[in-house]
Amino acid sequence: MRSSAVTPVFVQKGDDVMLNLTEADVLEDSAVFWNFNDKSSNKESVIVRWLPGTVPHVSLGYRGRIEFTVKKYCVKLKTLQETDSGVYTATVFGEVKQTTQYNVTVQDPVSPVRLTVDSVSSSSDSCNLTVTCSTQDSHISSTFTCDNKTCSQEGGERSEVTTSAASLRVYLVNDSVTCNHSNRVSWTNDMEKAKKLCIQYADLEAEKVACSLQAM
Prior knowledge:
By secondary structure, the protein is mostly beta strands. The chain has one helix spanning about 195-215; strands at about 1-5, 5-10, 15-20, 30-40, 45-50, 55-60, 65-70, 75, 85-95, 100-105, 115-120, 125-135, 140-145, 150-155, 160, 165-175, 175-180, 185-195.
């Protein structure tokens, strides 16, 4: 038996995916089966099979959900949901048994990320800025320092894995504070120039002081 390495495939929920098996892998009078092994239940089921001299037979649960391409042994799965995550195996039964496998993971697109300023402290030659990057299920904070020339991040880039198994990161690039929320199928960013935030919040504090003096 000849087996290929399992190919990881990540698909956004609601999208389609093409699983390929070249005709060169299929000899005349070979039988071809595409099977699905459910990750959650570890149960295996047949999606479609080709037997020599017959038309493809699609299993009941996949009728209307798959298409065949010009390369007739390729299968296109449509409108994938999280329950479609699992291992898809094409088995060719001929003179030599061959298998091709895809480990498909279906993921939701990530939620938006928002950058907010927690605190700012300024002096004549520097500014300390603490921000928080927030998503619908997680948050992460970091502190930045800017002087007249450049900005730096205390402790370097920070990151964590969210409860939805995505990555939430806060980092500095070209003096811009950047929040990034991503998984293998989507990403969102929110970013602001660090020095711009320092100036904005310094002006805001100055306005508050001026207002308090006027109120006296």
